[in-house]
Automatic annotation (TrEMBL):
One of its GO terms (molecular function) is protein dimerization activity. This is HAT C-terminal dimerisation domain-containing protein. InterPro entries: HATC_C_dom, RNaseH-like_sf. Residues 84-153 form the HAT C-terminal dimerisation domain. It comes from the Eukaryota.
């Protein structure tokens, strides 16, 4: 049993590292201002064209690789040392008319989840909820329980006394049975 768990952990880690490597190949040149500045013109052009190809869907493309390259070449001299992608995006947003492709590239970079951990947690919680005894529950109740399980931090902040009082006050019969004096 233990070896099976270790094997699953190793496979999961290998999969995630492969995802990170793929992400780094496409977006790696945008990770920091130091990395962006370290590229020569030819390397930057190749990276921008690769990013354009990665973001292309059929004939539709989110960015133009050549224009992005020109924008980033101009941007290289303006950036401070050791800026992260969020700092660079904030810098670019103030100048979005000058760097439209760069703004789009950094927005995509910062919104793509590197892992699918939240989705994995959702399915893991769903397996716990959908046990043999609960297999007959309605979809609405299952969705409610899944939301409660996933948003546990919000649930901990709820004042249950007020919730119970509100529930009791909505029905006269409940007030007689559960009414608090």
């Amino acid at each position: 049993y233990f070896l099976h768990i270790v094997d699953q952990a190793i496979v999961s880690l290998n999969t995630r590292f492969e995802q990170y490597e793929g992400y780094e190949k496409i977006f790696g040149f945008l990770f920091t201002s130091d990395r962006l500045r370290s590229l020569d013109d030819k390397s930057l052009l190749v990276a921008c064209v690769n990013l354009e190809d990665a973001l292309k869907s059929g004939e539709h493309k989110d960015i133009d690789g050549l224009e992005l390259c020109c924008e980033l070449l101009f941007l290289q001299g303006s950036l401070q040392k050791s800026m992260g992608p969020l700092d660079i995006l904030n810098f670019l947003k103030k100048r979005s008319l000058i760097y439209p492709n760069a703004v789009i590239a950094y927005r995509i970079l910062l919104t793509i989840p590197v892992t699918v951990a939240s989705a994995e947690r959702s399915f893991s919680k769903l397996k716990l909820l959908k046990s043999y005894l609960r297999s007959t529950m309605t979809q609405e109740r299952l969705n409610g329980l899944a939301t409660i399980a996933l948003e546990n931090d919000v649930l901990e902040k709820i004042n249950y006394e007020d919730l119970i009082e509100d529930f009791i006050s909505r029905n006269t019969r409940r007030m007689l049975l559960f009414g608090r004096k």
